[in-house]
Amino acid sequence: MNRKLKIHIAVLVASLMPLISTGCLTPEPPTVDKSMENEKDPHSFAEPEKVVVTHLDLDAKVDFDKKQIAGLATLRIDNKTKAQKLHLDTRDLNVYRVTLGKGDTETKFSLGDEVEFMGRPLIVDIQPDTTEVNVYYNTNPAAAALQWLEPAQTAGGKKPFLFTQSQAILARTWVPCQDSPGVRMTYRATIRTRPDLLAVMSAKNSTQKNADGLYVFEMPQPVPSYLLALAVGDIDFRPLGDRTGVYAEPSVVDKAANEFADLEKMMAAAESLYDPYRWERYDVIVLPPSFPFGGMENPRLTFATPTILAGDRSLVSLIAHELAHSWSGNLVTNANWNDFWLNEGFTVYLERRIMEAIKGRDYSEMLAQLGHQDMTGTIEELGADSKDTHLHLDLAGRDPDEGMTDVAYEKGYFFLRLIEESAGRERFDAFLRKYFDTFAFKSMTTTGFLSYLQEHLIADDGVMEQKLQIDKWIYGAGVPASCPKVESKEFAKVEEQVKAWQGGAAAKELKTAGWTSHHWLHFLRKLDDPISQERMAELDAAFKFSNTGNSEILNAWLMHAISNKYELAYPSLERFLTSMGRRKFLKPLYTELAKTPEGLEMAREIYRKARPTYHSVSYNTVDEILKWKG
Predict the structure, then answer these.
(1) Which of 33, 411, 514, 546 is the most buried (most CB within 10 A)?
(2) Distances (CA, A) of 449 to 343, 400, 428, 439, 461
(3) How high is the pLDDT of residue 484?
(4) 3-18+327-475 against 495-626: fold identical
(5) Domain-wise residue ranges, the chain
(6) How far is the C-alpha of 507 from the C-alpha of 504, rounded, in Å?
(7) DSSP 96-165
(8) Rg (CA), the chain
């Protein structure tokens, strides 16, 4: 047993003794897990070890004219140490009044010094017996979590739209809270908006507009603040099953419902692997294209990008990923952002198990091989010795968004796959079910997980421990030599066609019948640059890459178009960059453009038009790439 694991086993085992896992749908809101208390979140001003928020009651008005949310946040607290100060996280919030209790007794409060990307602490005077704190506030029109869309930026083109993105530490820009993944709370919200719009949250939702524009939401399961989510717009709903459905703008909703038709199958596959779903419903909302991520796993209501609506259900593994978060991330949550891999590495592992159950091993192995390519590309970009290629990160003093790379997702996945292959799938599945059950609605640190792994799976198996090389995976750079090998028979067929084409075969003669988007992605990634203009045009004529409706394939093709200066694809490039705001695609395309003076000039010209349509998560990334000064 290595030294790091020994240190934590005694603490963790003691903390597990009083835990009773019931699997009930409305668990008692926990405070901070005792085994996690000594690991301070470097990205929060809160002091939950002294006073912790256990429930939020939010009463808020959404004002599209002012681009502002005006709210009253009533915070139920557990004053564990009889402290006289409550520390909350805020950023760019106008806090104008704070009171205590149901009697609204005035109290003193102050805002501390501004810290870059973290905002300012809100420090409230409380009494030892205070149980409720009321914060009256409004948001800034430029609040980083909020994107206010003009009608022209929506699919319908007639009504405005608002959506939030709270991960990683942006919840504090629209709600005063203890903005740490290690603090969980239940919540109730009353949202007031225009009567012609529907409001939905990561909670129990209405499926129809209310004539008075008033909506009430309940989230009985405790969640961290980064899973607070709100969307308001011209939204319709389509049921997919007894406990699943899809929300979207009226012109998109039927297409989305068709794309996600297998959602019930995904739910069944996930439950067969990892026991019952604990959040009652699982719905998806397809947002306007400026949404910066592929998906966001907000409980009960995944937020998704329209770039996954390929028309052939070929990109729905993203929905399997967000569904998997219902166990890894939402149910058992990383205690702080240094432990981000506990969220995403586990979720990628579960996603691929779900897709294997639905579509077979060959399909999931294609996903794994593409993931391995993403991982190695990211590590090459970061540098093989970079500390950002560790699973356990050190993000103190940095925006945690900087640590959210493919390393957490894919290196985390391959570490868990190594454990599965070492212990055997049956044993590892049993271990994971017990892990999710034991720590349901709790937070987890890397050291806590490793201790639990040692105690409940590795035990005295020295051979397994030696094979796993845990320290190299968790605290080491790059990818250890013990990384599982992925060999896709399907991709072997693709590589034969790549070799044939690069050997001079005509594109139209290639054997591509039955290829999925994953086959095409592998094909495009395996093409070696430079490619002549004639050969680029030949590929484009044969396979219509520049006009494909599949965003993943288009992105891969446009990377070749930029590097080979294939100008016939430039109109498609501009349309793509100005019609969606998904950072996964924006970052590599703008980076590739910026490599040459003429490319940088074109990138800045496109960006000048596109930037107002991007979410802050995206434009902050592109600003840095293009050295944007406005």
Answers:
(1) 411
(2) 12, 21, 14, 10, 17
(3) 97
(4) no
(5) 3-18+327-475, 45-234, 495-626
(6) 9
(7) EEEEETTTTEE--EEE---BTTTBEEEEEE--TT--EEEEEEE--TT-TTEEEE-GGGSSSSSS-EEEE-
(8) 24
User: What whole-number distance in Å separates Cα of residue 2 and Cα of residue 6?
Assistant: 7
Contact 92, 143 (CB under 8 A): yes
10 Å CB burial of residue 272 (0-12, 13-18, 19+) is exposed
CA distance 129 to 133: 11
Give the 3-state secondary structure of 582-599.
Answer: CHHHHHHHHHHHCCCHHH
pTM over 0.90: yes
Cβ atoms 270, 191 nearer than 8 A: no
Number of helices followed by number of strands (H, E) in the chain: 20, 21
| Catalytic residue check, 322 | yes
Phi, psi of 44 (to 5 degrees): -135, 140
Which residue in 259, 322, 344, 410 is the catalytic one? Answer: 322
Per the annotation, the verdict on 132 as an active-site residue is: no
Structure tokens at 621: 């990334």
**495-626 is a CATH 2.60.40.10 domain:** no
**Coil, strand, or helix at residue 283?**
strand
List, in order, residues 6 or more apart from 415 with CB less than 8 Å away: 345, 391, 473, 474
Active-site pick, 247, 409, 452, 614: 409
The tens digit of pLDDT for each residue in 444-494 reads: 999 999 999 999 999 999 999 999 999 999 999 999 999 999 989 999 999
**Angle, vertex CA 451, rays to CA 447 and CA 455, nearest 5:** 170
Fold of the domain built from segment(s) 45-234: Immunoglobulin-like (2.60.40)
DSSP secondary structure letter of residue 222 = E
Residues 6+ apart with CB under 8 A from 496: none
Distances (CA, A) of 215 to 61, 85, 163: 11, 33, 16
The CATH number fitting domain 3-18+327-475, selected from 1.10.390.10, 3.40.50.620, 1.10.530.10, 2.60.40.1120 = 1.10.390.10
pLDDT tens digits for range 603-619: 999 999 999 999 999 99
